[in-house]
Write a structure and sequence with these properties.
GO terms for molecular function: 4 iron, 4 sulfur cluster binding; iron ion binding; NADH dehydrogenase (quinone) (non-electrogenic) activity; quinone binding. It is found in: Cell membrane. Its EC number is 7.1.1.-. InterPro entries: 4Fe4S_Fe-S-bd (IPR017896), 4Fe4S_Fe_S_CS (IPR017900), NADH_quinone_OxRdtase_chainI (IPR010226). With about 280 residues, the chain is an alpha+beta fold. The protein has a domain of about 180 residues: Alpha-Beta Plaits (2-Layer Sandwich). Helices cover about 20% and strands about 10% of the residues. It has 9 helices and 5 strands. Strands 2-3-5 form a 3-stranded antiparallel beta sheet. It is elongated and about 95 Å long. The chain starts with about 60 loop residues before the first helix and ends with a helix. About 5% of the residues have low confidence. The structure holds iron/sulfur cluster.
Length: about 280
Amino acid sequence: MAEPRKKPPAPRPQQPAGSSPRPAGATPGKAVAPRTSAGEVGAPAVPQYESLIPKSSGVRALLAPVGGFGVTLSNMFRKTVTEQYPRETVPTKPRYHGRHQLNRYADGLEKCIGCELCAWACPADAIYVEASDNTPDAQFSPGERFGSVYQINYLRCIFCGLCIEACPTRALTMTNEFELAGPSRAGMIYEKDDLLAPLREGMLAAPHPMVEGTTDTEYYRGEVTGPTEAQRAWVREHRPDDPTLPEGAGVTAAEQVGPTAAVMAQNVAAAHRQGGVR
Ligand code: SF4
């Protein structure tokens, strides 16, 4: 039996005049690098850009080149918002993260218990805490322990607020104070004396015993609202000249600003004077 005759191959399409043949292995529809006459590969062919924005016509097309000046002109007549710091100090937002503060209970005892959770939470390793035991003769905070050493290095602090989130007693909070200027690197390290909240009217300076019949739980719950007569009697016996006693000179006389805070306050005042603040 005779074999069927093979169908002849279809003729190849003719290349248009002047175009180069597709290189072997190239994908149809993809831009490929054209070859020069010497066989070198040139820059890839870039498909032509087509804007998706409809083209304007008429008056819009006429004004388009100067349209951008509209933004400039409209802003030229707006009220300027440049702040004149330090001549004018603009109040910060209420929740601004500024300098830290170590708070007290209403009777004057310190809230910090020296647990170091703030130091562990700090991502910049800016806080250093050492705790000590409270004793009957030196009770600084409710419970067993208090923060005897407390330092914050403001060259490291990034004011993220993670420390105040970690504090179990709300001892550590942040004020709105942002004017921090130290005389040296060591001068930017705030000690406990610099961070302790000022004594308010009616508070009794620590150390002194806890309110009689209470534990630290009553303090945490806010059930202690001020010093008792027994606490005042203890302070009279151990520190008869204490200015925070009712017969003393008052909390203003008792305020001892820490040395770092005092130097910083001088620096900030000097900077304000240089800035022309009266
Ligand atoms: S400030 Fe708060 S978190 Fe830090 S050591 Fe004192 S109690 Fe603990």
